[in-house]
Design brief:
The protein is α+β, with helices and mostly antiparallel strands. It has 4 helices and 10 strands, in the order αααββαββββββββ. An 8-stranded antiparallel beta barrel has the order 2-3-4-5-6-7-8-9. It starts with a helix and ends with a strand.
């Protein structure tokens, strides 16, 4: 129960990230004494970042080691490795130029083990970078019934017209061993 309370606090504290506007304050745009606009900041002020949502479904597999399977068994969750993963990724990509790297803020919510008749929840919050070629790296907390750990992810986003197809390899080292996941999905770029 304490872990759930900490998770709620973490989400509440980080929620303002999604509420930030990409436009300057209205008084800065409309002020007669203002020397800048929404597209041209004052000298010495960095340009305004743009933000796009790249949310979409995710699916894949996670390899569990024996210690992790034992830890899940302590919570009356009996599975074998590998387990299926299905979920949704809420991603915001923030950038200021088209030719440079972009900053990522991602929440990945997964249900694992559906192929074995169980639903193991997993919540991941990742921050990272994506190059203009589509290579990406991220790091952040992972919360599951097996415990709390740090997730490390790397992957590539393949682009085909308006469809982005991310392919991600994630490792979650913990005191119960390392879990390794391979996930993919799709995003319709709007």
């Amino acid at each position: 129960m304490k872990r759930i309370a900490w998770l709620v606090v973490a989400v509440a504290v980080s929620s303002p990230v999604f509420a930030q506007s990409v436009l300057p304050p209205a008084d800065a745009i409309n002020s007669a004494s203002s020397t800048f606009t929404a597209t041209q900041p004052a000298p010495g002020v960095p340009p305004y970042a743009k933000s796009i949502s790249l949310a979409g479904p995710r699916f894949g597999l996670t390899m569990l080691n024996d210690d992790t399977i034992g830890r899940l068994h302590e919570h009356d969750i009996d599975v074998k490795s590998p387990i299926s993963q299905f979920g949704w990724q809420f991603e915001h990509e923030m950038y200021s130029k088209q030719d440079g790297p972009t900053v990522l803020n991602e929440w990945v919510v997964l249900l694992g083990g559906l192929d074995q008749g169980v639903a193991i929840p997993s919540l991941n919050w990742l921050v990272g970078l994506r190059t203009k070629e589509g290579t990406e790296f991220g790091i952040g907390p992972n919360v599951t019934p097996a415990g709390v750990a740090l997730a490390l992810a790397a992957g590539v986003t393949l682009r085909a017209g308006i469809i982005n197809v991310p392919v991600t390899l994630a490792a979650v080292p913990s005191k119960y061993g390392t879990r390794v996941s391979v996930l993919t999905g799709f995003v319709l770029r709007r």
